[in-house]
Amino acid sequence: MLLGRxxxxxxxxxxxxxxxxxxxxxxxxxxxxRSFQASDLVQMVQSRWQDIARLLWGGVLGxxxxxxxxxxxxxxxxxxxxxxxHLLNTWERITAWIEGLIPPARRDEVLEFAHAYDAQLGRYxxxxxxxxxxxxxxxxxxxxxxxxxxxxxxxxxxxLGNLVPYLGLPLSLLPGLxxxxxxxxxxxxxxxxxxxxAVVTFLDQVVTGxxxxxxxxxxxxxxxxxxxxxxxxxxxxxxxxxxxxxxVLVKLVATRGLARYRASTYYRGTGAAxx
Length: 275
Fold this sequence. Notes:
By secondary structure, this protein is an all-alpha fold. The protein has 12 helices and no strands.
């Protein structure tokens, strides 16, 4: 048995060490070493083998998750640029192939809808970037006026965090909190930081954000907030990221559906539909 062999080896090691001890150990230490029995250690290991195995297995799983995460990060860092370059290089061929799959009778209508949606998404992205820039400028400018340390760093963090719904706010607060804790007056710096963030967040969520982003995509600010709430409940964090693009899609589909309905014979009450 492996544990029995280990006990024998420990006994031989102890005996050899005691025989060659040249003043390395005191008498008390040598006496404790002579009284030590390797079989006691083996019995303890056997009695707690399940706990030890569980700890070892947890360590192995932790190392495995760490290695897997490292490979994932490296994979994304390597694969993402390659895939992006390939898509940009072959984008025209991909779009031409997709267009070829659309029935010719419906091609113009589908392509016109796709171009309209693409234009709406472009305006949405520009609106998001504009709003993020505005948040960064207001945050950094407000902190600079109050004498907060390194307001540019906090402003840049707030602008980048604005691109991530809900989670972006606490994440963008972290650099400011770290700087506030190193300031001369910690309490005053924290009040400055939280006050500026509270004002800018209110303006972003109630005034500027819905108007800039919603105006860019032609959506009422109320519908933007409803879309964020609804898709956030349905899809979680992913829903928050895709809420406005999906709301734009719903708007385009609804608009064209209403146009078809108003042009139908049922709505007009005539014998032929008006194109």
